[in-house]
Amino acid sequence: MTTSVLVLGAGFGGLELSSRLSAELGDQVDITLIDRADAFVFGFSKLDVMFGKRAPEVVRLRYDDYATPHVRFRRETVTSIDPDKRRVVTDGGEYEADILVVALGAEYDLAATPGLAEAGNEFYTVAGAEAVRDVLPGFTSGRAIIGVCGTPFKCPPAPSEAAFLLDEYLRERGLRDAVTIQVVIPFGRPVPPSPETSDAILARFAERGIEFIPDRKVVALDPDTHEALLSDGSFLPFDLFLGIPVHRVPDVVSASGMTQNGWIPVEPASGATRYLGVYALGDVTSVGTPKAGVFAERAARALADQLIAQIRGEAEPPGYDGTGACFMEFGNREVAGIAVDFFSTPGHPTGTFTEPSAETAAAKASFAPERHARWFGLAGE
């Protein structure tokens, strides 16, 4: 008997889940993977694009090259989701499955921050990163703000990474003394779960003359005065604004009735929703881990192991443990490591920090190629 699996979203979660089910179950599963995009892009690659280190076409892993056995990729836009019937309608057809997995991620709501689209720049999309790349050569003096516009947001270390890389970019051009860099984050520390990481970031901020403005978010930009309004009512002038937009679930997910308080609630260990046979992974959920690809990937791997056990009639493994690890750019080709555990002590996540090293930089360099091979059916090539 073949189990049909319908996966919505070909990001970290969808790709990891599909590839693992395919590898372990073969023709016991019939998987359909749907995404409206034509390519996958690792989040950290957008920083490379923004600072002109890599071309956009180089960082795009095109779904046309997707060739994982037992998985059909469909480039279609999901227009409705009926979780009770596990039925999905797209602009290309209708689908039903034994197992439905929603991994459509979070979208960006620039309109939620008045003035952001007119006076600022976002760098969380490839198009936004390209736009910043084109703006940077003309920015030679003044005030630069890297500001978070809402929570939760993807990849909490990213604002600090952007600050370090902007500092590096300006120093290489002899412009750093003419620029003030400020980082506005709605946390008391850059990476709250890991005091050691936060200490390292703050020490580097102090060394590089980067001002950290904690416990505030940017709620509006004034295109006329070029001032950023913060959540405490204060204003900051800027000449360059690099923003992290407000995040939200896609409209089709909101319309499905699956969300509570803006996100899909799930059972943390399994990703199960309140609907039978329906699961959700990654940024679209309120699972309690950061909205970051590495957490979606680990949750997807755990869900895959549980589904494999179900289909084989075996005892299910314990499920996702709430851990994840990522890399962080400190500028000057220095790469550090961060590992965080969100579930072991509920309400009190803990993290560890690995000092920048050549070994960590090498591990980051291999991260994307390894996943490209695994997800796109290229293993062994």
List the helices and strands and how they pair.
Layout: E1 3-8, H1 12-25, E2 29-35, E3 39-40, H2 43-50, H3 56-59, E4 61-62, E5 71-75, E6 78-82, E7 87-90, E8 93-96, E9 99-102, E10 107-109, H4 116-119, E11 121-122, H5 126-135, E12 142-148, H6 158-172, E13 179-184, H7 195-208, E14 210-213, E15 218-222, E16 227-230, E17 235-237, E18 240-244, E19 246-248, H8 251-255, E20 278-280, H9 293-312, E21 323-331, E22 334-341, E23 350-354, H10 358-375
Parallel strand pairs: 1-2, 1-9, 2-5, 9-20, 11-18, 12-13, 12-18, 13-14
Antiparallel strand pairs: 3-4, 6-7, 7-8, 10-19, 15-16, 16-17, 21-22, 22-23
Helix pairs in contact: 1-9, 2-5
Beta-strand segment tally: 23
The best one-word shape is globular
Structural class by secondary-structure content: alpha/beta
Largest sheet: 5 strands, parallel
Short descriptors:
five-stranded parallel β-sheet, 2 domains, 10 helices, FAD/NAD(P)-binding domain, 381 residues, alpha/beta
